[in-house]
Specification:
The protein is mainly β. The chain has three helices and 17 strands. The radius of gyration is 30 Å and the shape is elongated.
Length: 320
């Protein structure tokens, strides 16, 4: 009787183990830094003998912030892939990045994602000048999460409602902002600009006559950045000058690479233009106008940087 009972219980255990449920295997790359191959569009993480990778166009990781609460969503398809791999020894980038990856150590197991969505939230990485308060964008942080991802494994499937891949960081070239102290007045309109090779910082105002009156100031004249007083920072692929800027229509070369526009100011708080005028020892033959930018933020797309608490646009002389 006891023998029959034991066989009965053993049968229950076997059936319970064969009911189609799979043991959940946890893959954890939380503490691992993500890297991209230089020769192919693969972002990957390596932990000893394990690898988690995403085959995805590099252009997906745009150098611009995503709107708050609105990540980029990309479905997993035959051309956008997520894979988990287990090898029989420690691995390196040589096991994924070359056109013909190293065969050793050998691949023991591979999971392929068959469904799900890749969500990417991008934020700017900034450095801060502790003296001026100025910020500069040095790169972008792309926070990657898999939503409702299903892996096909050798012994079945495994699904994660939310799986955090983590951060993948990209770097950008620092904006030069390499301007000297001398600005110039456009010869064809009321723009005032500072040029440094292929860089252009432009102040354009509909109030030129009053802001740049040829009268020595005792206190600065001020204007708020808005639709009547605009400030832009442009970078071209070659040098620019007054003749180029005054040609209408604007020539197709040099090519505009980047354009940043100042955010509208707030009275007595930010986005303030200050202009001082003096005779600069010119003996009554002219006046020097100096433009300073107070607490100005420049924006392109969804990204921005702070020019600084007090930034010199430059000064120029107007003959009397």
């Amino acid at each position: 009787m006891k023998r029959l009972l034991a066989l009965f219980l053993l049968g229950i255990v076997i059936n319970a183990c064969d009911d189609g449920d799979l043991e959940v295997e946890n893959i954890d790359f939380t503490e691992v830094t993500a890297t991209i191959c230089t020769s192919k569009d693969v972002v990957y993480k390596i932990k000893d003998s394990e690898m988690l990778l995403i085959e995805i166009p590099a252009s997906t990781f745009a150098n611009d912030q995503t709107p708050e609460g609105t990540p980029i969503s990309i479905p997993i398809t035959s051309s956008v892939k997520v894979k988990y791999r287990q090898y029989n020894g420690s691995i390196t980038a040589d096991n994924i990045c070359p056109t013909i990856p190293n065969a050793n150590p050998s691949l023991q197991e591979e999971w392929n994602a068959t469904a799900g969505t890749i969500q990417i939230t991008t934020t700017a990485i900034k450095s801060t000048n502790q003296t001026t308060g100025a910020t500069r964008i040095t790169g972008y942080r792309h926070y990657i999460v898999f939503k409702n991802i299903t892996f096909e494994k050798p012994d079945g499937v495994q699904t994660y409602e939310t799986y955090v891949f983590g951060n993948y960081n990209t770097t950008v070239s620092a904006l030069p902002l390499n301007f000297g102290e001398e600005a110039q007045k456009s010869t064809c309109d009321t723009r005032v600009f500072n040029i440094s090779g292929s860089e252009l910082l432009t102040f354009n105002t509909s109030n030129y006559a009053s802001l740049f009156e040829n009268v020595v100031t005792t206190t600065p004249r001020t204007a708020l950045i808005n639709s009547s007083n605009t400030l832009s920072y442009n970078i071209y692929n070659n040098v620019v000058n007054n003749a180029f800027l005054c040609t209408n229509p604007l020539p197709t070369t040099p090519v505009l690479l980047e354009e940043w526009n100042a955010v509208d100011g707030v009275e007595n708080v930010s986005g303030i233009i200050e202009i001082t005028t003096n005779d600069d020892g010119l003996g009554g033959v002219g006046f020097r106008h100096t433009i300073r930018l107070k607490k100005v933020t420049l924006k392109k797309g969804n990204s921005d940087f702070y020019l600084g608490d007090d930034y010199l646009l430059g000064s120029f002389i107007v003959a009397q």
